[in-house]
Design a protein that fits this description.
This protein is α+β, with helices and mostly antiparallel strands and 91 residues long. The chain has two helices and five strands, in the order E-E-H-H-E-E-E. A hairpin with a 2-residue loop joins strand 3 and strand 4. The chain starts with a strand and ends in a 5-residue tail after the last strand.
Length: 91
């Protein structure tokens, strides 16, 4: 069973305007690599050149922020909902 990935509006141009996609992965890092294989350029939009998650991108697995878990090494269970959420800043 795959994981369901919720795609934010800003990244939907990469997914053919799909608001959610399916993939299979053991970790968040693998999930992003798989998405990048299917949707070229995806990983570069959410990760820095060194592979770390961009500062203003948040990823949640079933509502849990991966930064408080194992970051990109966080395991992703079958059937999990993964949300990619760009932070909103303003003044």
């Amino acid at each position: 069973m795959a994981q369901r990935v919720i795609i934010p509006t800003l990244l939907r141009t990469l997914t053919g305007n799909a608001s959610e996609v399916q993939t299979e992965a053991a970790t968040v890092k693998e999930l992003l690599e798989n998405l990048d294989t299917t949707y070229p350029g995806f990983r570069a939009r959410v990760c820095e050149a060194n592979g770390e998650l961009r500062r203003f991108i948040n990823i949640y697995i079933d509502g849990e922020d991966i930064r408080f878990l194992d970051d990109l090494s966080t395991p992703v269970k079958e059937g999990a909902e993964v949300s990619i959420v760009p932070a909103i800043a303003g003044g």
